[in-house]
Amino acid sequence: MKHKRSLMKISFIITLAILWEMVAYSGLYPLALFPKLEMIIVRFVDLVLHDALFLKALYSISIVLVAMVFSLILALMMVALGKRFEYVRVNTEMFSALAGPIPGIAILPIVILWLGISQRAMTVIMIHAMLWPLWTNIVLAVDRINNQYQRMMSAFKIPRLRRIQHIYLQGILPDLIAGLEIAWSRGWRALLSIEMIFGIVGKQSGLGWLIYERRMYMDTAGMLAGLIAIALCGILFESILFRTKKWEAISENNHSSRESE
Amino acid sequence: MKTIIQVEKVSKKFTGKTIFSDVSFEVYEDEILVIMGDSGIGKSTLLNIIGQLDRAYDGSISYDPSVFEGNQIPFPFVFQALESLLPWKNVEDNIRLVQSNLSEQALNEILHLVSLESHRYKKPHELSGGMKQRVGIARALVCHSKVLLMDEPFSSLDSKLRKRLQDLIVDIKNKRGLTVIFVTHDVEEALRIGDRIINLSMV
After folding, report:
1. How far apart are CA A83 and CA B50, in angstroms?
2. Phi, psi (5° rounding) for residue A185?
3. What is the ipTM, given to two decimal places?
4. Nearest-CA distance B100 → chain A (Å)
5. Could you tell me which chain A residue has the CA closest to the CA of B129?
6. Which residue among B53, B85, B124 sits closest to A155, beta carbon to beta carbon?
7. Which class does domain B1-75+146-157+173-203 fall in?
8. For residues A187 and A104, what is the distance between their CA atoms, to the nearest angstrom?
9. pLDDT digits (tens, 9 = 90+) for B135-173
């Protein structure tokens, strides 16, 4: 079954590649606009060897990860405070409903005005992009645990610290991973958009800027190579999360027993 | 027979609607008292009130101070399988969750009592419905309470398994001198294990 799925994917990629090559070789579009596959691959290798593509990718990933850690800590604090104070919960819910649908890039102009073009501004936008899906997933998971285990926790007088350690933190893990997955994709997209607008912030530039920069040189193959790098980073992160999910499934944190009831 | 819990004119309202009113009865030491009634009549609510999980009620419940020390209330529950065990913890950890300082010997004894010695490290999804409920019973027993509250614990099991677990409860109650308050809507189950039966009904 796994092999069959892999074959299906590979055959689809090969079909796409053939179609791409057919269009490129047909001469319908100039090569400068629609380069051949080998040109893109050569450019990709060239960017890796001479333009520090990996470093740029690592830089972009590191920014997302740092913002993700901040967002996670903030989300957990907001959930904890919301659980303790009804006022916080109600208003966080309202604020999440208001701010959640606003894409990170939409608050960029106001953040530039307030904080300037800086690493700090980037982090604020990233946190905005990632915080709300994380908070929503965690708060729903905590509510579910409350509904399901509140009676048990009260009946057995399980102390608060043990509840947090053994029930809440372990129980929210599947939803937390799902939240991180959404946060990652939102943060990643926000970062690339910001990089295209901000350009270089600090000593290093990321993948977004790389694509933007290639456009200035009419380097279509370079832009496409940059896009491939972005997709590869996405796949890499997804595969890490997939491994976490797999581990989590093994440790039965996916609540499989609920389904088997 | 010694009365250990006295329920007097207990009424429960929820969002203005009366669930039940003026319920009075006694719970005797070392008995299995079955609370019966149709679905939605308030059996589980009454059990929550007796177990002091729900304190928003009218009337009074008195607990014999010579039998109960303050820290014995609320009483341990055995729930329906659905809300019972933490799926990410194995049998031992599910039991230890409610009694962290449980000795190895006490744990072995309890696992032996419910015949789960060989399933100690299994996760709930690796257990049958009956085994899960036995873990729930073991978890309640390690609390060393004199009263055990059981809320339709076997409702999701087949009749053969139910009978085996009903026998187990009677056996444990006799061995340990427990008082069990058992909620069910199954007449056969009530007659099989109950020393006394209280039937909640609409007036």
Report:
1. 27
2. -65, -40
3. 0.84
4. 9
5. A261
6. B53
7. alpha beta
8. 8
9. 998 998 888 888 999 998 888 788 888 888 899 899 989
